[in-house]
TrEMBL record:
Lipoyl-binding domain mapped to chain residues: 85-161
Pfam families to which the protein is assigned, alphabetical: Biotin_lipoyl
Protein's name in the database: Biotin carboxyl carrier protein of acetyl-CoA carboxylase
GO cellular component: acetyl-CoA carboxylase complex
Region (Disordered): 48-87
Length: 161
């Protein structure tokens, strides 16, 4: 990590806070990479009116002991849905809507057959409704989010097999 401070970071964080307020957002997360071991991650949130900054730590030494293995019994319960080969992940931060408008039928439900390109759900980001298409055809096996829930970039939304 570089010992020098980045003077532009303070202005950058202030600009993010203004962007949050001006666009009536609840949270904004950004990562800036200045070099190999010099990264700034900023999360600005209205939930607790907190501002968090984090500079990436230097890489771990090559002689570090390997991490302890998890108990075999805990492995199935701790399976990460995002690592499932049929996982559909969120391409953006926003609010999930399972139907086109309140009271309308959901785009999909468990057991629905979908074709590549079919709309699975909508993610609202910055007051824009973004239709999320099926990346492949198959059957919806699991829906991992609820209508109206906030999602992060990369969060698993559903499983299609």
């Amino acid at each position: 990590m570089s010992n020098k401070s980045h003077e532009s970071d303070v202005a950058f964080i202030k600009a993010l806070a203004e962007l949050l307020n001006d666009n009536d957002l609840t949270e904004l997360s950004v990562k800036r990479e200045y070099g190999e071991d010099d990264t700034l991650q900023v999360r600005v949130s209205r939930r607790g009116e907190t501002v968090t900054t984090h500079y990436a730590p230097p890489p771990a030494p090559a002689y570090a002991p390997p991490p302890a293995a998890a108990p075999a019994a805990a492995a199935p319960a701790a399976e990460d849905p995002a690592s499932h080969p049929g996982a559909v992940t969120s391409p953006m931060v926003g609010t999930v809507y399972m139907q086109a408008e309140p009271g309308a039928p959901a785009f999909v439900s468990v057991g629905t057959q979908v074709s590549e390109g079919d709309t699975l759900l909508i993610i609202e980001a910055m007051k824009t409704m973004n239709h999320i298409p099926a990346p492949r055809g198959g059957t919806v096996k699991r829906i991992l989010i609820e209508d109206g829930a906030a999602v992060e970039y990369g969060a698993p939304l559903m499983i299609i097999e």
